[in-house]
């Protein structure tokens, strides 16, 4: 099926067929569900034991919160970022280029808008699974202080959507897997380090504090931390608006770039 090349930047109009793409990816993931779940639970356990208990023993409290809980709440958000991003670059690129799964989808009633919407939903689901796994492990280890932590589940879906769009846009312009090293090194890793996962953003130089406010992970951590630790959530609507804005803009750009890639 030829993709309309006249207006690749026209507004997307996804349909309910997007859920067929989500279902397809979910069924593939379920074939390796045991190993996938072991990875999702095993990695956060190592982080929390090694850094939360090990490093936390020397730090004590940070920003008025026990460091174990401080770290766990940050990892809940950052894990959703990592999982959604990696799904949107490596896995989506594999379906897009080497496996030519998208070519097969475009031979059906599916359109690019539906495919990208389905991929974003699946990336968000992977982010929720990954962040939720850390939340469960943290709760079992006593780091969760409030029932409000359950609100992290819809938050993780939003965080996954916020990072899925930019990742899919990278896949749409990537010439090879090596290209993703730039995105991980220049975008994902700096956010992981600077956006409040391991220490308060307020401890950074003032210029950097202002700069990281433009990054979605900062807002994800600002919402996840009080939900996990039982502290009051400040400026919730502003944080949600930023994440939703990244999700909407990422969806629009990724749809346009995938349309351009599949012009025939």
Explain how this protein is built.
By secondary structure, the protein is an all-alpha fold. The protein has a two-stranded antiparallel ribbon. The protein contains 10 helices and 2 strands; from the N terminus they run H-H-E-E-H-H-H-H-H-H-H-H. The longest helix is centred in the N-terminal third of the chain and has 30 residues. Helix 3 packs antiparallel against helix 5, helix 5 packs across helix 10 and helix 6 packs parallel to helix 10. Strand 1 and strand 2 form a beta hairpin. The termini are close together.
Question: Which key phrases capture this entry?
Answer:
two-stranded antiparallel ribbon; 264 residues; 2% strand; single chain; mainly alpha; 72% helix; 2 strands; globular
Please write out the topology:
Layout: H1 18-30, H2 33-59, E1 61-62, E2 65-66, H3 67-96, H4 101-106, H5 112-140, H6 152-173, H7 180-194, H8 206-212, H9 216-229, H10 236-261
Antiparallel strand pairs: 1-2
Helix pairs in contact: 1-5, 2-3, 2-5, 3-5, 3-6, 3-9, 5-6, 5-10, 6-9, 6-10, 9-10
Category from helices, strands and their pairing: mainly alpha
Radius of gyration, in Å, reads 19 Å
Largest sheet: 2 strands, antiparallel
The end-to-end distance, rounded to whole angstroms, is 8 Å
Strand content: under 5%
How many distinct beta strands? 2
* Strand adjacency order, main sheet: 1-2
Helix count, DSSP H or I runs of 4 or more residues: 10
- pLDDT averaged residue by residue: 91
Order of helices and strands: HHEEHHHHHHHH
- Helix content, binned percent: over 70%
Shape: globular
Show unreliable segments.
none
